[in-house]
Amino acid sequence: MDPDFSRGSGGPSFEFAFNSVNFSDRVLRIEIVAGDDAAGAKGAAGEGCSSLADWAHQRKRRREELRREKESGKYTDLETCKVEAEECDAYEENNEEPVAMIEESPPDIGQDGEDGESSDSSWSMECTQVLRVKSIYISSAILAAKSPFFYKLFSNGMKESDQRHATLRITTSEENALMELLSFMYSGKLTTNQPTLLLDILMIADKFEVVSCMRHCSQLLRSLPMTTESALLYLDLPSSISMAAAVQPLTDTAKEFLANKYKDLTKLQDEAMNIPLAGIEAILWSNDLQVASEDAIYDFVIKWARSQYPKLEERREILGTRLLPLVRFCHMTCRKLRKVLACNDLDHEQATKCVTEALLYKADAPHRQRALAADCIAYLDLKREECSRLFPSGRIYSQAFHLAGQGFFLSAHCNMDQQSAFHCFGLFLGMQEKGSTSVTVDYEFAARTRPSGEFVSKYKGYYTFTGGKAVGYRNLFAIPWSSFMADDSLFFIDGADDTSSQRAAPALPHPLLVTSPPPPRRCVAAYMDLTREECSRLFPSGRLRSQPLRLAGRPFYLTARCNMDQRDTFHCFGLFIAMEEEEGSPAASVTVEYDLAARTRRSGDEFVSMYKGYYTFTGGRSCGYRNLLGTPWPSFMADGDSVFFIDGVLHLRAELSVKEDSYLN
């Protein structure tokens, strides 16, 4: 029976057996070669870095070096030789007490390749130069139970499986992390909570397929204080790690942190301009952005893309595939939509499609728009000086915002009370356009007061608006203007008058700040890029789950599988969509139309539809196609012949949209 590689670290501890000759059946020979920390650089990425910034800088530097080496033809991938089995007829034991860690000097490397070293001419001198060797006593049963990598190494039926010595070749930057990993596989514990070393351990745990250690590292990293720097670093992990279910909670926490920190995107726009793509996507996924209108989101996205991607073709690619799906064009003004059509940064066909869909939404039946509109809270912060300028009959208007497809505004007044006896502070909500359309709105006005600092309801009601009409309260605070503006007034906190209007939609300029959760998304495109190596690990029954995406207010995800075809005759590649259950959310079903597509070498940059349909999802249910690509697994994975891998990557896309007749049910 195959071992359960996903088991957590809560099982029995074999710490006593680690590196013990009495509890071992093999010797693991670890060859350390010069790698990404060559002479003159810092030590291991975790050990030699004083901060996450150093760790990220080293990793970025190494990736740039590898890119240049590949371009110059000098690069050789260490993955091709990370494991060798040595041809030793016997395991020679020393009569002395075994040393916990046996240090050996590098063997002499002859031209004929003796001493077990490869003489492949494709190896560069840096790759073959073994700096030092460590030997450690291991139990193949314990390692195989924790890792598919070691399971295949020790039970593949080949000659090497029966030998007493096995060799791993790693770089110097991986040395400490590997020793921590091996110790964890015995004890279920790590000896560090240093974030840089935990990241190194996470990377090498992924390399050697130790899922329980990946999960443990993810939990430890989540327990540490999150910063913008660390959140961006977690989102920049290699796709094989960031997409792993064991690390999913860490990347989700990082996204949530960024979305909360940059909730007030207008205020923090300058800082957000320096955030990389993965961070921008996390922020734009949020339903809680505090912005004047969706116009501001669009303007920010275009400005950010121009700053980060100076080349037009690259900028169009990023905007079209990664960022525009996150902009809610249906909530943009018609004036801004006209600018979208004229924007040279966008593919004209895609821009036309986005604008057309937005205009169709705006023309939709008012009752459906009301059903899709979300409740929201609008905040107005007015300084004492701004209020003083309102006397005796001044007003401050907000910019227009949209609710149920209609334009609304807020206005703060200095006016006479109902009996025209004295001046006082008033707050009003109005609908902008004149016409036959009417919208009924529930509203509530509230204000913060000293000393509690909490919002206290001042006035509530409901009103059926028609164009040009407004509703509110002339004397919101029930006191004369002089008492409202007095030095001991309860309504000014740190020099600001804080008022709140509930169930009014956003779009107010400085000094008025409005927050609003936009309505649930109704159409999304999800992309999944898998390397050939990631796909090969799926065989015979593995799965890879995407990061969650939200549609109609519900979390969905994609799952790539290696499974049997419908007739159970051969293995093949499958892709599925599922809706997750959310704790605390009411049970619901959503009918979704979907289109599963893939890029091929013949289609190039274009996605080819492979399977489409619709399905009514409930929590935990999934649908998809077992043989998405219409070919057996060997043909799908064939070297050189498979049409589905472009530069070693399988590109998948799922377009999901809510069926109109199901959304309101």
TrEMBL record:
Keywords: Ubl conjugation pathway. GO terms for cellular component: nucleus. It holds the Pfam family BTB. Residues 93-122 are annotated as: Disordered. Residues 119-194 form the BTB domain. It comes from the Eukaryota. Pathway: Protein modification; protein ubiquitination. InterPro entries: BACK, BTB/POZ_dom, POB1-like, SKP1/BTB/POZ_sf. SUPFAM superfamilies: POZ domain (SSF54695). GO terms for biological process: response to red light. CDD domains: BTB_POZ_ZBTB_KLHL-like. May act as a substrate-specific adapter of an E3 ubiquitin-protein ligase complex (CUL3-RBX1-BTB) which mediates the ubiquitination and subsequent proteasomal degradation of target proteins. This is BTB domain-containing protein. It comes from Oryza punctata. The lineage of its organism: Eukaryota, Viridiplantae, Streptophyta, Embryophyta, Tracheophyta.
